[in-house]
Amino acid sequence: MKFIIEKDYASMSRVAANILLGEMYRDRRVNLAITAGSTPVKMYEYLVEDVKGKDYLTNVHYYNFDEIPVIGENGYGVTMGNLDKLYFSPAAISAEQIHVLDENNYLQQDERIKDDGGLDLILLGIGADGHYCGNLPGTTKFENMTSQVSVDATPGMRDILIEEVGGDASKCPDYYVTMGPASVMQSKRILLFATGAKKAAIIRQAFFGPVTNDVPSSLLQTHPNITILLDEAAAAEIQDLL
Asked: Where is the Glucosamine/galactosamine-6-phosphate isomerase domain (predicted)?
C-alpha cells in the first residue's frame, strides 16, 4: 500500500486529478472506473480544466461501478447522472467514451470490462462504515462479482437510497447494482481517497485492521497496487503506523 497525505482537501484533490491524468496520458486505450459523491467534486473541477478540448485524450474510456435505477432528467440513473453533472458534460466527454453500467446490463459488466482490456484504475471513496461502491456491510461478500443488491439487505439501506433519490420515498427502488469486491480487485490499480476527520477511524480500521466482510474495504489492503490518498484530517489516526 502506498499512502499519500496532503495538507487539505484542495491539495488532495489536485493530486487525485494528477494521478488520473497520469493514466490518461498513456499511448493506448485507458479504462477508468470513477466515483461520484462529494469527495471528488474538487478533483472533477480540476479535471474538467485539464481534459476539456484535448482530442488526444479520446483514448480514455469511463465506467461507473454502481447504479441506483432511478432515471433522471438526463436519462441516466443516480450515479451516472451525478457523474454527468460533475464531469462528463462539463468536460465534453463523448458518448463513445462512456460505458454505462445499469440494471439491464449488470450481468455482462465483468465480461465487458474484460473484453475491453480490463480496468487500468478504479477510483474509490470510502464510507464511515467501510463500504465502497455499493458494497456495504451485510450486502456483498468478498467473492461476489457485479451483482444486484436488495435495498433491504442491510438495516438503514433504504433510508440511504431515499436520500440518494432526493428524499422521495416513492422513488426509492427495491435494489441497486454494483461491482462486487471480486470485480474491484481485478482492476490493475486502485486509488482510494478520503477527506475529513470523520473518515479517520475507518481508514485505520480498514487498512491496518483484520480483513473481514464486516469491514468491506478491508479487502483492499490485499491489492498489489493500491494508493490511499488522504488529507491530514482523514490520516489523523494512522500517523503512528506509517
From this structure: 25-223
Amino acid at 136: L
CATH code of the domain covering residue 148: 3.40.50.1360
Residue 53: in which H helix or E strand, if any? none
Q: Which grid cell sits at 80?
A: 451516472
- Candidates 61, 66, 84, 223; catalytic one: 66
Residue that the C-alpha cell 420515498 belongs to: 169
What pLDDT is attached to residue 73? 72
Q: What is the pLDDT of residue 174?
A: 87
The closest alpha carbon to 32, from 190, 176, 182, belongs to: 190
Tell me which of 50, 102, 110, 129 is the catalytic residue: 129
Residue pair 8/234 in contact by the 8 Å Cβ criterion:
no
- Examine the residue annotation and report whether 61 is marked as an active-site residue of this protein: no
Residue 129 falls in the annotated catalytic set: yes
Q: How many domains does the chain have?
A: 1
Residue 169: give the domain boundaries: 2-241
Task: Tell me the whole-structure pTM to 2 decimals.
Answer: 0.94
131 catalytic per annotation: yes
**Angle, vertex CA 183, rays to CA 199 and CA 113, nearest 5:** 120
CA distances to 36, 102, 122, 143, 231 from 63, in Å = 11, 11, 9, 21, 26
